[in-house]
Specification:
The structure is a homodimer.
Chain A: H1 3-8, H2 17-26, H3 35-45, H4 51-63, E1 68-70, E2 78-80, E3 87-91, E4 97-100, H5 112-115, E5 118-131, H6 132-139
Parallel strand pairs in A: 3-5
Antiparallel strand pairs in A: 1-2, 3-4
Helix pairs in contact in A: 2-3, 3-4
The structure holds a DNA duplex.
DNA sequence: TTACTAACTTAGAATAATTCTATTATAGAA
DNA sequence: TTCTATAATAGAATTATTCTAAGTTAGTAA
């Protein structure tokens, strides 16, 4: 019995071969892949896999709290298999996305004009920057 | 001469009637409209206006630093005519977006494993919550 | 004031991301 | 082993956004 199967069985969704392949690809993956990235990878082993399967699976995983959907890139969604709340930084040059594992919640006090209108439940920070590779490129 | 024209002329883009209508609609607008919201509004006065004009205009305004593009809603882009850096809070019930005019930058120190990889240039916080209207609805 | 042209508007086609549908297949419960 | 709810698939549909080609115009400069 595979480790992935052990980890995810009994969570309320079926573990099909395609899903196991998606879970394996995502396991420990810090590249923040898009749906197309996942599709391209799974297609190598399951050439008939469809986008519907990829989208269905990431939706199930999101709903079960096993995956985060990231909105930092205005062009498309990225996914993060680490469901622990954390933040992200995107390189404005190449689009690479990195993780920021710091909880800033204690510092993020909201003004009265906001707390009087909303009950806050969470926060996510998008940091923007330039990665080393892109900075080097621009210097030369 | 209208105030909008006075404010935006000489900024490097032509002020057409459609653009003036868009700028008027956006002026002081805190509803964070989508492209469709803008299109629907401008269509009232200019029935032949096209989506291309709306998208072209918001792109020009974004490039000129007169408008922010907001990614807090995974479903579609929203626009904010206040270009001063600030943050947003979205109601997870109805999708309403509010502004948060606090600069938290001083508190957002990044760990070494991030600063060694990225030179940070900015940040934007997505707060999530429930607005009063939605909270009341759920109680009843 | 007029003439000019780069920039703009428009309708509609194209693209890209995502979702839906109908059908067939299967994981996992009984 | 059987059964059925759930999932996979191909492909159509939908939605957001961008592109294209043709006609129009804002704003510059004579």
């Amino acid at each position: 019995m595979e480790r992935i199967v052990r980890k995810y069985r009994g969570k309320g969704f079926k573990l099909t071969p395609q899903r196991i392949a998606i879970l394996k690809f995502l396991e420990g993956n810090t590249s923040h892949p898009t749906a197309e990235d996942i599709y391209t990878e799974i297609k190598k082993r399951y050439p008939t896999v469809s986008f519907a399967t990829v989208y269905n699976t990431v939706q199930v995983l999101r709903d079960k709290g096993e995956l985060l959907e990231i909105t930092i890139d205005p062009a498309r969604k990225h996914f993060d298999p680490n469901p622990a709340p954390h933040h992200h930084i995107m390189c404005t040059g190449c689009g690479r996305i990195g993780d920021v594992f710091v909880d800033y919640s204690a510092a993020l006090n909201l003004p009265d004009e906001v707390t009087s209108q909303f009950t806050t439940t969470g926060n996510h920070i998008d940091f923007y920057g330039v990665c080393n590779a892109c900075r080097t490129k621009n210097i030369n």
